[in-house]
Specification:
Helices cover about 30% and strands about 15% of the residues. The chain is of the alpha/beta class. Strand 7 (about 150-155), helix 5 (about 165-175) and strand 8 (about 185-190) form a beta-alpha-beta unit. The radius of gyration is 21 Å and the shape is globular.
Length: about 350
């Protein structure tokens, strides 16, 4: 609940408005895991809260640790469905700099988009996460971390734009200065390309979060192979939406670009990206391709191969020579299948490793 919702909630029990702020701070600042911890609230009201409310709906099933410091959390939800979240230390998050820690948050159980390079898509789609299930990922992981989570990226399982209202409400709670107070410029929403929702984000949301587009190629035919959503929102429509977003918000979007060998790493690809950069002020994140062979992916996805590291560096330098801002992302958590595109809970709700 937001503070305003908590006000209505506590007043329904005949309590004063200030109780709402007390509860909000206990949950989101002091990270209380039970109502009994809320010692400045009367015992009788705490008992009432225990009877009619819950603080968390997540159960931690497993925690996997990478050699690079990345930690992957497997959570079970109230209905038995499972999701994953990934905590990334600062030295592996090149864009955000030193002394920060990033949590990659999921927004759906599975994903309906079936992108060829993404493990989550092999799960199919079960349902959207509720607001509390999104916020709970942050609160639960923060309780286990000695370092304050400073960055939130909605780049985990699922498409955030298909859970628009719950994602934005979760952001408003996480951003609230009375709670965790995670700054807007440290929160990123990533989308596979819902042009209408990109425009809606620009029009309706007052918190100036960052926007990232999972692009990967400007060739419409190739992008359709990678990301079937391109059939609904072709590349030209996406670029129009990005341009609208920038003109309306004056915030540069980030274009996420996984490099595949001999597919989207050509000179023509470089020229197209430089051309887009001249039209829409943006940043480019070059991302290594991480194998999803553990999902037994078939078809076009099984043919994809990562570009060589030398080629990634050459590609990045060519874009920089074209006056683009370029970041080359590291492969955080690849050894525990927690890197970009690798999140998935396989069939029958069984976790796949490191139990």
């Amino acid at each position: 609940m937001t503070v305003d919702e908590l006000v209505s909630f506590v007043e329904g029990f005949g309590e004063k408005r200030y109780r709402a702020l007390q509860i909000f701070r206990w949950i989101n600042t002091k990270l209380a895991s039970s109502f009994n911890e809320m010692t400045d609230i009367s015992a009788s009201f705490r008992q009432t809260l225990e009877q009619c409310a819950e603080l968390s709906s997540l159960h931690e099933v497993n925690r996997s640790h990478s050699i690079d410091g990345t930690t992957k959390f497997l959570f079970q939800l109230f209905d038995g469905a499972r999701i994953e979240s990934v905590l990334i230390p600062s030295f592996t998050e090149t864009e955000d700099g030193d002394g920060r820690i990033t949590l990659c948050v999921s927004t759906q159980v599975g994903c309906p988009l079936a992108c060829a390079f993404c493990a989550t898509g092999t799960m199919g789609f079960t349902r959207n996460l509720t607001t509390n299930e999104i916020v709970d990922q942050v609160l639960t992981v923060q309780r286990s971390s000695s370092t304050r989570i400073s960055n939130i990226v909605f780049m985990g399982m699922g498409e955030p734009m298909l859970n628009f209202e719950n994602v934005l409400k979760a952001i408003s709670i996480l951003n609230d200065e009375k709670g965790l107070a995670i700054g807007a410029r440290h929160i990123t929403i990533s989308t596979a390309g819902y042009a209408d929702q990109i425009r809606r984000l620009a029009d309706e949301f007052d918190i100036p979060v960052k926007l990232a587009l999972s692009l990967h190629t400007l060739d419409n035919e190739k992008r359709t192979l990678l990301m079937p959503i391109t059939k609904k929102y072709p590349v030209p429509e996406l670029l129009n939406a990005l341009e609208y977003y920038y003109r309306k918000t004056r915030r540069r979007p980030t274009l996420e670009y996984i490099l595949f060998q001999n597919f989207n790493d050509t000179q023509d690809d470089i020229k197209r990206l430089i051309s887009v950069g001249k039209r829409i002020p943006c940043k480019i994140n070059l991302i290594p391709f991480h194998s999803i062979g553990f999902t037994k992916v078939s078809g076009f996805g099984a043919t994809l191969q990562p570009a060589l590291q030398d080629r990634i560096e050459q590609f990045a330098q060519a874009l920089r020579n074209g006056n683009l801002t370029v970041m080359v992302r590291s492969s955080s958590g690849d050894d525990i299948q927690a890197a970009c595109g690798q999140l998935a809970v396989l069939t029958n709700n069984k976790e796949r490793c490191n139990e």
